[in-house]
Each structure stands twice: as C-alpha cells, then as structure tokens.
Amino acid sequence: VQKTSAETILIQRLSLVCKLQDCVDGALEALLESGHFSSEERDEVLLPVHTPSQQARRLLDHVGSKGESAASALLQFIQRRQESGSQQNQRGLEIPKELVRYQKKLSSSVSAQSCFLSTYGGTSHVSLDDVFTEVQLELHHSSSGVHQPLGLED
C-alpha cells in the first residue's frame, strides 16, 4: 500500500526531526519559494527561543496542517539534501554532524538569551529591544558633600 506524503511525515516524525534539525532554514526557504509557507509562518518556526529540534518539530506540525502538497514538497527537499549530502561524503568534505548540531544549538541558545527576557515560569518572553530603563548615577564627593547626577554622556 502506497503511503501519502502526509502519512509518511507522521510515521517517520522522529527520524525527520533528526534530519531536519540541521537544515530547518533551507526547508523553510524551499517551502516559502514553492508557496506552501508565508514569511510569517517561517518566522514563527524560526523563533530564536526554540532549539533546532523544536524548530524541526514546529516545521513538521505546520507542514502536517498544510496537507499533502506541502508534505510532498518537504519530503522532496529532504531527499535532495540527502542526495547532495551523499555526494559530499564521497568527496570527504563533511563536517561531523555532532559538531554542526552543537554549533546550531549553541548559536540558537546564545541568540535567544541575548534577544529575549523570559519570565520566571517561561510563560512569556519580552524582547530586550522593548525593555528600557532610565538610570541616574550619583558620584559621592566626601569633601564637598554635593551630589551631582551623572548621565550616560559622562
């Protein structure tokens, strides 16, 4: 019995997450170019607060809700990537997957930590660009006893 692409995505979800976590960006670009995803959906999957494997799971969830055509496009992307990967293996130019996965996870983590402020329970995230505090510093001069405000320019 021939399985549909949507069924294949459900059945092989675990292995697809492993295959996709190193190439979520490329898969999203392919789906965007083919008209299956909007740029807003791409940005939603690529939120920096998610690890690469979480991004891969979110991608699969979105593709599953889009139907057979999107599922087929994603599976074709994965197949093309595997074929080009096997050609690279023959040339001996491959970077170890563990290193690539570690670099991507570290980059995602640092990016998330440097862009967002999370609440204690992790229930909400605030962009650090939206957080601003006004600060005034005072210098203590023991001889004069006068406190003068110190601005950022000083």
From TrEMBL:
Source superkingdom: Eukaryota
Domain CARD: 1-79
Signal peptide: none
PROSITE patterns in UniProt: CARD (PS50209)
Biological processes, Gene Ontology terms: regulation of apoptotic process
Residue runs in coiled coils: none
InterPro entries per record: CARD (IPR001315), DEATH-like_dom_sf (IPR011029)
Protein name per the record: Nucleotide-binding oligomerization domain containing 2
Chain's gene name: NOD2
